Amino acid sequence: MKGPDAEKLAAEFLQRQGLQLVAHNYRSRFGEIDLIMQDGSVLVFVEVRQRSRADYGGAAASIDARKQQKLIRTAQHYLAQLHHMPPCRFDALLIDDRDGHHVQWLKNAFDA
Q1: Whole-prediction pTM value?
Q2: CB 7 within 8 A of CB 24
Q3: Domain limits of the chain?
Q4: Which HAMAP family match (predicted)?
Q5: Which of 3.60.40.10, 3.30.200.20, 3.40.50.300, 3.40.1350.10 would CATH assign to domain 3-110?
Q6: In terms of Cα–Cα distance, which of 76, 71, 95 is closest to 4?
Q7: pLDDT (tens digit per residue) in 85-102
C-alpha cells in the first residue's frame, strides 16, 4: 500500500467513525498534514503512518519529536487563516501491515 492509498483508507476509516473530512494533504512551508478532520466541534490534525513491518517500533515510532514540531507548525499556519480558534487535537492513524487490515487510531497522539 502506497502513501495515497493509506491516506484514503485512513480518511474512510475516520469518516466511518463519524469524523468529517475538511482537507487532505495541507501543505505549508513548514510541512504537510495528511488529513484535517472535524470531530464535532474539534478540529483534528491527523498524521497517517503506514509501515509493513514493526521493526524499530513500527508506525508509531516514526512520529518523533521533530515530526511533531513540523506538524504543530503546519497546524498553526492553517489555524492562522481561520476567523476563530476551534478546539484542536493531533491524532495518528497507524497502519502496521501492507494490506491495511491492522489500523490503530490514536486520539490525542501528542500535545502541542
Answers
A1: 0.88
A2: yes
A3: 3-110
A4: UPF0102
A5: 3.40.1350.10
A6: 95
A7: 999 999 999 887 666 668
Position 66, amino acid:
R
Residue 46, pLDDT score: 97
Q: What is the pLDDT of residue 100?
A: 60
Cβ contacts of residue 65 below 8 Å, gap of 6+?
A: none
In the predicted model, is pLDDT for residue 31 greater than 70?
yes
List, in order, residues 6 or more apart from 108 with CB less than 8 Å away: 89, 90, 91
- Three-state secondary structure string covering the chain: CCHHHHHHHHHHHHHHCCCEEEEEEEEECCEEEEEEEEECCEEEEEEEEECCCCHHHHHHHCCCHHHHHHHHHHHHHHHCCCCCCCCEEEEEEEECCCCCCCEEEEEEEECC
